[in-house]
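Entry 14. Structure prediction run on the chain below.
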Amino acid sequence: MHKIKKVLVVYKKSFIEVYKQRGGLSRIRDVGLLEAMRRSDAENRLTKGIVLDIIKSFGLECDVFLRGRHDKYGQYDLVVAVGGDGTLFAASHYIKDTPVIGVNSDTKNSLALFSCADRRNFAERFREILGGMIKPVLLNRLALRINGRKIRELVMNDVLFTNKTPSAMSRYIMKVTSNGKLRAEEQKSSGVWISTAAGSTASILSAGGEVMPIESQGIQYLVREPYNWNLSPYKLLKGFTAGIEITSIMDNAGIYIDGSRLCYDIRFGDKIEMRCSSCPLCLYGYSSAKRRFFIDKAR
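Output returned:
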């Protein structure tokens, strides 16, 4: 039996909880939307309760924590992320060696590509994990440095470098390493997507990128809406690399990590370096069939 004694459950706040805290519920006039938010909130709460009860029924020690930054992930034998992919991403940023399982808390509204269970089958999946019948997969992640300073968060899915004003142009110098050679180019565009293999089915695919084998250790990049009027045609528009560097030639840029919630401000002259991390994410229950289904739908 897999030796799991201490489990951490991380969860997300539902939309209705977030809007309540912001005092914004009174602004919602659409009755159907409000009802959908209430239903989703009830699903989220129900799933979290069932997951906790099941874990405790196995006689395991269990703590609960709201998703996000947490210094004590390493004290647990397993992390259970209850929510969607965003909840799993938020936890993964700070997890080193602790294995993770994702539980979809609202199957009607959340794809949860990296989750392998919901409230209806979590007991069965959890029993299989404890019994060693489900083996984890290792997902490559990215490690970032800004001006030489290591960023604490590890990237599971993707990074977007862009001007923080959506309608403004992004200006930068990009360097990529390919076949042992360093190539550099100054560009103007709407920004640059950088993704792991796990993230290659997300935004970079919608922007024209390619699906990478899930076990790939490479990094994919893609320039969004390049603007090269009065310049030579760009050569570094998309591709695969062992490492990438971006130097900002603008003062209002940002590096967005795995979505919009985590962003680092980037100023003129700042340099961002991205490499494969030596610490992959250990994920239980990854489904290649589910990934293929999603890719087929996306296309």
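The CA atoms of residues 14 and 219 lie 33 Å apart.
Filed with the rest of this week's runs.
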